[in-house]
Please model this.
Amino acid sequence: MEQKRPGRQTVALGQPPALTGWASVAGKKEGEGPLAAQFQYVGADDSFGEKSWEKAESAMQRLAFSYALDKAGVTASELDYVLSGDLLNQCIGSSFAMRGQEVPFYGLYGACSTMAESLSLGAMLLSGGFGRRAVAMSSSHFCSAERQYRTPLEYGSQRTPTAQWTVTGAGAVVLEAEGTGPRVTHVTTGKIVDKGVKDPANMGAAMAPAAYDTIRTHLAETGRKPSFYDLIVTGDLGELGRDILLDFFHRDGVELKNLSDCGLLVYDRERQDVHCGGSGCGCSAVVLTSLLLPGLEQGRWKHILFCGTGALLSPTSTQQGESIPGICHAAALEGTARGGERG
Amino acid sequence: MEQKRPGRQTVALGQPPALTGWASVAGKKEGEGPLAAQFQYVGADDSFGEKSWEKAESAMQRLAFSYALDKAGVTASELDYVLSGDLLNQCIGSSFAMRGQEVPFYGLYGACSTMAESLSLGAMLLSGGFGRRAVAMSSSHFCSAERQYRTPLEYGSQRTPTAQWTVTGAGAVVLEAEGTGPRVTHVTTGKIVDKGVKDPANMGAAMAPAAYDTIRTHLAETGRKPSFYDLIVTGDLGELGRDILLDFFHRDGVELKNLSDCGLLVYDRERQDVHCGGSGCGCSAVVLTSLLLPGLEQGRWKHILFCGTGALLSPTSTQQGESIPGICHAAALEGTARGGERG
Model:
């Protein structure tokens, strides 16, 4: 069946692949948060038995990969593609996780939008007939991110109020051309949007304009109203970025009442000291695989717009005085529960 | 038209997209090499008018992007996808190049295999009906790579004999679902292969097993003999890696007489002090766009297997004692000149 292209950035998949298995692996702090009971595995000390934080991040991806395959009843040798990425320099979290797995592999870099990017590309590869089974995956680790992007933990640096907390976690999703489960029905590919925010401790503000651009484009191109979705979920805008996004839509006369953000869902901000909320590639990856997909499977929700948000900066670009380019990729997810489309 | 899948890793594209425009932008040293006359633009001092090497790398990508669009007669607003990546931490070479271009963007990380990865994914997106026009792109810069991976240039470190020279260059290719030009007919997605090489100054040896794996798989799955191709071109194995690859095939009783390597084509190793040859994402990107695609267009060659090779290491993984995972993605290119398939 042909793909439909209602607009330049959006594709309605002709053969929407089913998400047949998924898993989330999370760190200790995340395991003390509101999603604790839904994670497949919570590490006791964030080391995952490894000698470095970077190796621990790869171990998390391997675990999530393995649990997700088990849930789908699929073996690695049956996979046609694995699409994965992370925040580490040269994406070693993903490469070293998939070393020795004997799977066709495409490495991605979309910063914290990577889970949505891998899900989008994986869904298109299957809908286009390029394979039958794929895994989309992503991860981040608080300790590897802190020492790479900011300062080593040992310095005990104080965090600004706009800062977010990088999630220690990995999420993996199995996509199958034929199978039962929630489906990816539409993909909206994001553009790079940079409104000049230069503060790397305020990435919510840097990413909110990209989220606005992609969500607005998705709604315009599909002709859907925000209310079509039970949830519109951004990746990791945090409290400030979420408020900016709401404000952008408010100026258009649109109240996004069903907007939620993985960065606000993953921690209990009253009890857990995370300032503006969670962030990192792992943030949307673990919320997708512990909350959103189970909710779609169980009929709690019927339609979710999953919007990965990424800040495409590096410490080098910041040191050279650059502002922070943002990007947002959106994938429309449809639940398995019975019932017609809502209008 | 449906995609055909002769094997797990290889897809024969049902609607092979045409490469309708391409361009290469290169640095001063590359502009003194054998491909000098074919580059669209050669920088006088490798700064490309920018204040940092990283910004210079983005400037090269923007230039290649712009020249390639011009050659294809396509505007940026007509693009459905841009797929790009580079070697810099968080791929800022690509993100900052595409900032302000208003194009749907997917960031990739395949180390030096990125040009083949972007070409492969771009070709599949178009063949699958997900868009009509895409740009595949990649870059590297000697100076930004040296200070990131090795030591700042100011240290004047001595290079080992197995070292390769990171190409300062960017290549961009316009793919169109309908159009005239060389076509991408097959894509073979690589697996991560790691045979335990730990020396980051010997990446040819680290990548050769991945190239062997992908080329052998491509030939087995398509049923093609090596002689089907006028050229089998690896990305940047250099002299040592090339010899290892030849040796692997020799042990199988196969003499790859038509094997060439972009790392050996881009410099004059007699005159230019590059040890084992060129490397970097830009290496295969500029050889593809200055030599291979023009040769296919002009009828010099009919069939080329373009095999991007990547070493998925980082300085951190090396410092932590890890070996170097390699990957190789292959895209089969067919020229526009008349004449039936060779057997």
Summary: Chain A has nine helices and 14 strands.
